[in-house]
Design goal:
The complex is a heterodimer of chains A (489) and B (128).
Chain A (H helix, E strand, L loop, with lengths): L2 H23 L3 H45 L12 H50 L3 E6 L3 E5 L1 H6 L10 E2 H4 L3 H12 L7 E9 L4 E13 L5 E10 L1 H36 L6 H32 L7 E5 H18 L3 E5 L6 E5 H17 L6 E8 L3 E8 L6 H4 L21 H12 L3 E7 L3 E9 L1 H7 L12
Parallel strand pairs in A: 8-10
Antiparallel strand pairs in A: 1-2, 1-6, 2-3, 4-5, 5-6, 7-9, 10-11, 11-13, 12-13
Chain B lengths: L5 E5 L3 H13 L3 E5 L2 H11 L3 E5 L7 H9 L9 E5 L2 H4 L3 H4 L1 E6 L4 H16 L3
Parallel strand pairs in B: 1-2, 1-3, 3-4, 4-5
Helix pairs in contact in B: 1-6, 2-3
Classes of the chains: A alpha+beta (489), B alpha/beta (128).
Amino acid sequence: MNTKYKILAITLIFTCSIIGIFSIFGIGANIAAVIISAGVITLVFFRSINKIHSYYTNTHIKISEQIKELDESHHKGMIMVDTINELAGLVSAINNHLTLENENSLEHTKQLRELKISRDNAEFELSHLKSVIYSIAEGVIITDQKSNIILANRKAQERFDFVFDNNGPEPIEDVIMCPEIISLVTESNFKDNTYIELCRQFDVNDPETNVTRTLKLICWPVFDSEDRRIGQVIISYDITTENEIMMMKDDIINSISHELKTPLAAIKAYAEMISQGEFDNTNDAREMAVTIENQAKRLAGMIDDILYLSRVENGAVNMIPQAFNLVKLIDETIMTAAPIANESNINIVKKIDDNELECYGDYDLLYHAIMNLLTNAIKYTNPNGKVTISAKSDKSVIYIHIIDNGIGISEEHQKKIFDKFYRVPGAKNIKGTGLGLNLTKRVVEEIHSGFISVKSIPGRGSNFTICLPQLELGKEVLAGCTVNKNKYY
Amino acid sequence: MDIKQKVLIADDEIAILHVIGLKLKRAGYDIITAINGIEAYQQAINELPDIIITDYHMPDLSGLELCSKLKHNIATKEIPIIMLTSHSFEISEQILPSGIVKCLDKPFSPAELLEEVELLTESAAIPA
């Protein structure tokens, strides 16, 4: 109750009391009684008013507090009143409204939660996608439809020497200085809504290594779900190695076809002479037939090399390990190589003290390996030169040396001569496929667990050394190896 | 043939040298042989053959390098050259400047080679 009502009530009670007292002493008792009654009634009236006011005020405060609490907490709930009157009716209406609001609020909350999950998922997927693009080993650049760069991965930035923070579109020409990329994007934009893949190939100098690299750019337009062009993606590939392999492959095919055609040419020419009866006597005919036979053997040997190498690489070598006399094997290689050496008057010298030097391994494969080294030595030795083949054994290792006094190999090329198809530059006019040394190394090291090395001085000659496990050790190392040698790779 | 025509054959394959020599000798030609490009060049300068037959792949001096050297020597620049090669498609563009008049693919026919040699010697015999 307000203070002014309290003061008024007290004043009235006080006034009535005074009047009552005066009435008792000076005025009639009836009048005094009326006055006192009026005072009492007034007092009772104001107390009732006060109580009613207090009651409504408290209810109002409770409702206000509950509403405030509901408003602040954003929790669903109801306003609680412990009375039945107009205020209770109002509260009931409010509660009905609150119930409806709560239901709507629940729906909104659910929708908000779903939206948040979708947004989080989209953000995760975008981040994941960016990470994937960023990690691609080839350069990736993505532009919008106005040729603004919107994303460039690490490789693209390194390769084309630019910095882009991926924080917003920038005109591509302001970021990338590579004219090939700019022209590609410009040309792609001219194609409008047509799906056309554009390519460029060009050489760039790698500033770090100072090596020329060949790059291939491919530009694709990007369309949205409604087939509207929204930009383009440009991927740069480093095709240097691919190009080198292609060139090497062409070189190999040329080289092998030439090598195969040479003995074939001799065979065809001699066969034609025989078929046309162009020989004076039986001896001439026999000589021609022998030449055909030798050339056919040579051809078969080359084809064997190619097949052996292929089988060794595929782990499909049927190895037949056995103990055999190494000197006998070396004698056979010398006998086969002698006609080639005789053509250039090259002397083959054998230096082996122990004629019973035994070895454990696959006879045919080792024959091929040693034959390759011996014929190489002859090929790269000048006419009238000398090729020495020697073999010796210590407790655990058998050493086979093939030494020539030929043209030699520079240190730079010594590291590479065992690589498949590698041929020393400048030796192109000396016939060969570039397969022999690779095959020899594989046979010695991968199949027989041995070792091959070369020492050479250009202009003075070369010394190729094969180290093989000695007989007993070879038996242990190669025990059980009869089918393929994958486990030794 | 009243005067024997002289043919220089250059190839590092002894079997090829032998078979071509045999075929041409039987047809009445004088034969000179060389087993590499350097020797062929020396023989060409010394013997001044009427025709040269050379292999494309040879050690020290390739067939093409030999042709180029012969073309730049006043004494040998007019000698017609037949080249034997496994790669005729590769060197077709280089034939004209190198003085090569004919390329024969390996494996070749000795009879066909003889025909080419005869054609060249006959055309050389016709007065200009």
